[in-house]
Structure formats: structure tokens, C-alpha cells
Amino acid sequence: MADLKLLRAPSKYVQGKGALLKFYEETKNLGNSYLFICSNSGYKMCHEKIEKSFEGSECTTHFEVFHGISSNGEINRMRKIVQEEGINVVVGVGGGSAIDTAKACAYYEGLPVAIIPTVCATDAPCTGLSVIYNDDGTFNTYIFYPKNPDTVIVDSEVIANAPVKFLVAGMGDALGTYFEARACVRTDSPSLENGGISLSAMALCELCYKTLIKCGYEAKKACERNLVTPALESIIEANTYLSGVGADNGGLAVSHSVYNGFTSLEECEKTMHGSIVAFGTITQLLIENAPKEEIKEVMDFCYSVGLPLTLKEIGVTDTSRVMLAAKKACAKGESIHNMAGDVTPEELYDALLAADLLGQDYFK
Prior knowledge:
The chain is α/β, with parallel strands linked by helices. It has helices spanning 23-27, 40-53, 72-85, 96-109, 156-160, 164-186, 199-224, 230-250, 254-262, 273-287, 292-305, 322-329, 345-361, and strands spanning 5-6, 12-16, 33-38, 60-65, 89-94, 113-117, 129-133, 139-144, 151-155, 196-197.
């Protein structure tokens, strides 16, 4: 049982069209020598705006394109640059891997970290943890940090110009936030920060879900045409801040365990994180025997934005493989055990196939 309630979040969150032109203004209190750890596309999309924001300042900036995964080798390479050049602010520019590399580098060097996400595919920008891989790409560990990033700056124009599949995957990841947190509250399970779940955290999680339902379809349409609209702004905030801070302080349940289970299947290796989380959320609602209206609302939403409703859409065509994923999803220590009454692999298997059958009805 989690005794003390706890809430953590980034110290500052800035979002809007052209936000990167204010990057220096929003981070000048952090230091005067910056290392930007960029993905390839992150560098291309952001460096001009960032450099423009430093015009007339006395700061030094170093842009370094990193090699693709947040591995120990890459983190050490960045730390060396920090030490040799006297860097005092680390910035991650890109998707999850660039962000995780920057967080780790800053943590080991005892420096502040700022985050510039270039996609809204997961809620990594605001969270106080990193996924670290070995240099060969295999999973190594999670690092849990004593605090969340100092500043997160999201330029809506950058997000609007990124492929729409990332925005949709981010909505899938965000879809689990409220339902997983609600399940944790029911069983008094701890959040990802290992504290009790506060009213504030639940309010963020609930707002995250309501925003998806209200704005998801319109935001996807806008993103397809690279347009920044109020609906897109709302979904960027839901995917990045509400989902990130919500999940961090709200806890996980079935949706993310289903993701962990299915990633062990080769055929799902290329499926985006948020796509599997969305299917896992429908599965969780069936396990909970949630009201029919709630299940319908979630499935209608997934259908409208193009999130998967069937096993086939997440890459599984042979249902005999589902039991392997179900067993992995129910391994010791998985968040599925935060559910009331617990869940066995057999129960999960049945719920996954039932979700698939309901999903197939949408395509008839």
C-alpha cells in the first residue's frame, strides 16, 4: 500500500507555435553553455530556430547528432563532450531515444536538462525516467531520476510537420493513462513514482482522456495537412504533458503490460508503442467489465483516429501466439497485477481475443 501521496512534474512546460524562437529566453536561468543532443530529424527541424533564439546572447551552443539509441556508449560519449567543453546545460532534441540520452547524461553529470520533443508519439518528454539499451540495441535497464526535466518546450509547428502516425501513436499511449490510473486507485497501488495517487494526478488523467475524445479526430486531420489548430494544440498537450505527468503520478495496469507482452513477439516488433497500448486499454475495459457505453466510446475513438481495434492491426495473424504474449504480460512484477482481483494469463488471453472479436465488428 502506498501511504504518502506524491506529485512530480517538469519545473516548466512551454508549448505553442514558434516556441523554439523563445528557447533561450525560457532557459537562460539554467546556464550559459548548452549541449544539444539531437536526433537526425531533430537537428534538421529545430536547430535554425534554436540558434536564432540565442542571437545577441553570450552563450555557447554545441549541437551533437547522436547515433540512434539511448545506450550506455552514447551516454558516455555525450558526457565526454560535457566534460571537455565545460557544458552546464544538456538539451534533448528529438524522439524518445534522444530525450532519454539527454536525461541520463545530465543526471550523471549533475546538470539541468531541457527537452525539445519533435514528435508526440509517447509521453517521455515530461517523465522522470529513461529507458537505457545496451550498445547492440537490447534492453538494459530503466533509470528513475530524483526529479523531472527542468524545462520542456514543444513547438507546435514542429509537431504539425512530423508524420501523423506519431501523433496517433501518442494518442494511443495517452488513452491508457486515465483507465490505468483509475485501476491503481481502486486497489491502492502505487504510482510510477512509488507514491500514493493524488487528486491532482487523477484530475490530469481524466482531463487527458476527455481531451482525446473531444479533439483527437480534428487534431489528426489538422496534422495530416501540417496545420496548427486549437484541436492540435490540445492533443499535443494531452499526449505530452497530461499523459506524461498523469502516468508518472497515476500508475499503470493492463494496457502497458499488454504492450510488454506483445513486444516479445517478433511480428509486433515494428508496431508502435501507443498502438499496442490502445488495444491493451480496450482489453482492460473488458477485464473490468466496464459499462458498455464506456467501451463503445473508447472503441469509437480508436476507430476515428486509426488506432488498432484488432490483433491483426498490431501484427498478430496467428491467434495461437497470443498466449505467449499473455504469459509475458502477466510475469512477476508487471503492472497488470495492480488490477483488482489480479489477472491470470488465461483471463488475459480470453479478454484479448474478445477485444479482437469486438474490433472485427467495426470492419464488417
